Amino acid sequence: MIDTRERILDTAEKLIGEQGYAATSLRQIIAEAGVNLAAVHYHFGSKEHLLDEVVLRKSEPVNQERIARLDLVEASGEPLSVERVLEAFMAPMSETADQNPQFVRLMGRMHAEGLMPGIVERHFQPAIGRFLTVMRKALPGLPEEEFLWRIHFMIGAMAHTMCGAPDYTRVSGVPGSFRERIDRLVAFLSAGFRAPVPRGQKIEVE
Amino acid sequence: MIDTRERILDTAEKLIGEQGYAATSLRQIIAEAGVNLAAVHYHFGSKEHLLDEVVLRKSEPVNQERIARLDLVEASGEPLSVERVLEAFMAPMSETADQNPQFVRLMGRMHAEGLMPGIVERHFQPAIGRFLTVMRKALPGLPEEEFLWRIHFMIGAMAHTMCGAPDYTRVSGVPGSFRERIDRLVAFLSAGFRAPVPRGQKIEVE
DNA sequence: GAGTGATTCAAGCATACGATTCAATCGAAC
DNA sequence: GTTCGATTGAATCGTATGCTTGAATCACTC
Q: Rounded to an integer, what distance in angstroms lies between the CA atom of residue B35 and that of residue B28?
């Protein structure tokens, strides 16, 4: 059997992306991959470690690219625009996604199932930390609380957008490129981030 | 045992909200509710029907309130503002949520686990249909495709916001009211909906 | 207070899960 | 050609799942 390890990873990525982690069994994975059950534990040790490997394999280059682009944006000297920072953070994901849609769907699932906090801590923290820093610089006037809430909104919109598309795209057949999705999303979010702060919110004290 | 049925519903709502549907077993539910396993199948027939009942019980009044408010906004004669339409759609949820946070979290989970399409079809279609109609009127200039994508972004942000809060709220202890969340979210989304359409998108043809 | 339908109980069903075991197999180094 | 570590195969472990069953219990009515 050629590249059993790789086939397990690919199939796990696909199935967990489609059905979620809890709802996908190892037996289903090995059946679809045409592989023996023991191979999973031999190569990965456990279902949990398998998931870790699936995420790590694809997220590593994405996050490195993110950091590189954020550095570039910050170093450019020009005044930081929200669009450019968002773009720097999202584009690497969309570029992976166009060749590899199931990985992005998996990311969405991870997030949805609440497995993200652990995964984020292990694999995404540096890139996200970098993003928050640069983004904060692009929005100096925004109260900290409001800033964090808007990041929260962004994460939700992003996860959902990675996971799926509106119904019409399924009807018309062509889902469109992730590039196009990201452009739309960046425009939408940028405006959201620049929205006036709603009245009645407490002024930042801390 | 007083009100076994009610206790099952409450506990299911709480646990499924916290852990997801697939990850929550009937045995866990009945253990926490202090109830017998057979009671679940006696009252609801199956795990799936239990979920249905859990959702229906709380969503029905919310959706009725939504429709009522949307009708009111549309009938007011004033030019429709995005804020007011969003507000009409979201507020009923937030008001339930303040007394009943676990239900809203459940909604987020349902959505996240991909159980939403079925649930939506059964229980949410009228309210959502009404919302789309009124919202469309508030945004007459927006191309249809862009409109649907922005609705998609909104759903993601909303589901995520219902599910949880940014980390700082967990640290500072006080999560704040849902009312406050919704105000922030409406401000954010309204600006997003009014954002200029990104260039390079195909002009609506159909 | 006997009878009746609604509800609860303890036990067990078949099935699936993640994990483990150990012999069989493979491939390259010596 | 033998040896040895890496990898796979088939079978099985203990546990948990959703669901079913039939007897026991409860709240009523007549």
A: 10
The pLDDT assigned to B140 comes to: 94
> For residue B35, which nucleotide's C1' is closest to its Cα?
C8
Q: What are phi and psi of B77, to 5 degrees?
A: 85, -35
Q: Please check whether strand C approaches the CB of A28 to within 7 Å.
A: yes
Interface residue A146 vs chain B (CB under 8 A): yes
pLDDT in tens, chain A (206 residues): 567 888 899 999 999 988 888 889 999 999 888 888 888 999 998 999 999 999 988 889 999 999 999 999 999 877 899 999 999 999 998 888 888 888 888 887 887 777 777 787 788 899 999 999 999 999 999 999 999 999 999 999 998 888 777 876 655 555 677 888 899 999 999 999 999 998 765 444 33
Greater confidence (A116 vs B105) lies with B105
Chain A residues touching residue B151 (CB < 8 angstroms): 166
Record: fold of B59-193: Tetracycline Repressor; domain 2 (1.10.357)
- B27 CA, D23 C1': Å apart: 22
* CA atoms of A141 and A44, how far apart (whole Å): 47
Residues of B in contact with A153 (CB under 8 A): 157, 160-161, 184-185, 188-189
The residue extents of the domains of chain A are: 59-193
Q: Is B20 on the interface with A (CB under 8 A)?
A: yes
Nearest to B50 by CA among B9, B101, B78: B9
Q: Say which residues have a Cβ less than 8 Å from residue B128's Cβ, sequence separation at least 6.
A: B120
Which residues, other chains included, contact A152 with Cβ-Cβ below 8 Å and sequence gap of 6+? B160, B161, B164, B165, B166
**Nearest-angstrom CA–CA distance, A186 and A190:** 6
Helix, strand, coil content of chain A in percent (nearest 5): 75, 0, 25
Q: Write out the DSSP string of B181-202.
A: HHHHHHHHHHHHHTSPPPTTPP
- For B180, which residue in chain A has the nearest alpha carbon? A201
Say if CB B74 and CB B130 are below 8 A apart. Answer: no
Residues B40 and B47: their CA atoms lie apart, in Å, by 8
